[in-house]
């Protein structure tokens, strides 16, 4: 669903901060295309090869993190995406990767700030459109999030302990407890 709204790699594109090295550009473009069409398992080996050869290329690491996210390898994805984002905090592909990571985990409200930064640094119209559509999707999903509306229950005053211990020192026979379970 998110993959339909966002270009592959969370909208990852070759960044002006970390341009594609010429030999790796073709492998990365092929992997990017595989992510777009949903063949993530075929894209991962290509991206792993590119990242192994060029570990400082943040866009490739972010794309590999997105691929891992889509395959459910969350911890590996988190390490790659957060590492790339720490090195290039204003990079479009890193921000989009972090946003997709959060969105796929269901934390749509955490994805929106990353999408706002991505919109500011979008290198072109297709990337801007992808970030804009994903932001709109996440904002729609944020409305009425269950974990945002959950609060502690309001117990009647008689039920509140207020620091008192209500546990008795008497031992309760096991048979009495078994009767309650039946």
Structural notes for this entry:
By secondary structure, the chain is mainly alpha-helical. The protein has helices at residues 2-5, 8-11, 22-36, 40-53, 58-71, 74-87, 92-105, 108-120, 125-142, 146-149, 174-181. The protein is built from eleven helices and no strands. The chain is globular.
Q: Helix and strand layout, with pairings?
A:
Layout: H1 2-5, H2 8-11, H3 22-36, H4 40-53, H5 58-71, H6 74-87, H7 92-105, H8 108-120, H9 125-142, H10 146-149, H11 174-181
Helix pairs in contact: 3-4, 4-5, 5-6, 5-7, 6-7, 7-8, 8-9
Question: Key terms for this structure?
Answer:
mainly alpha; 182 residues; single chain; disordered N terminus
Mean pLDDT: 79
**Structure class:** mainly alpha
Q: Could you describe the largest sheet, including whether it forms a barrel?
A: none
Strand content: under 5%
Could you spell the SSE succession in H and E letters? Answer: HHHHHHHHHHH
- Strand tally: 0
Shape: globular
Which stretches are poorly predicted, pLDDT < 50 over at least 5 residues? 1-17
Terminal CA distance reads 47 Å
Range of helix content:
55-70%
How many distinct helices?
A: 11
What's the alpha carbon Rg, rounded to whole Å?
Answer: 24 Å
């Amino acid at each position: 669903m998110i993959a339909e709204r966002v270009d592959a790699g969370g909208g990852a594109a070759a960044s002006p901060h970390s341009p594609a090295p010429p030999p790796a550009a073709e492998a990365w473009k092929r992997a990017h295309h595989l992510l777009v069409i949903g063949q993530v398992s075929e894209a991962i080996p290509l991206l792993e090869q590119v990242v192994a050869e060029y570990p400082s290329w943040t866009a490739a690491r972010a794309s590999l993190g997105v691929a891992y996210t889509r395959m459910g390898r969350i911890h590996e994805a988190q390490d790659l995406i957060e590492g790339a984002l720490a090195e290039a905090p204003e990079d479009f592909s890193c921000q989009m990767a972090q946003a997709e990571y959060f969105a796929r985990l269901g934390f749509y409200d955490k994805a929106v700030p990353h999408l706002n930064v991505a919109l500011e640094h979008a290198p072109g119209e297709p990337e801007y459109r992808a970030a804009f559509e994903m932001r709109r999707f996440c904002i729609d999903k944020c409305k009425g999030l269950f974990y945002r509306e959950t609060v502690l229950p309001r117990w009647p005053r008689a039920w509140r302990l207020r620091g008192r211990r209500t546990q008795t020192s008497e031992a309760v026979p096991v048979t009495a407890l078994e009767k309650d379970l039946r």
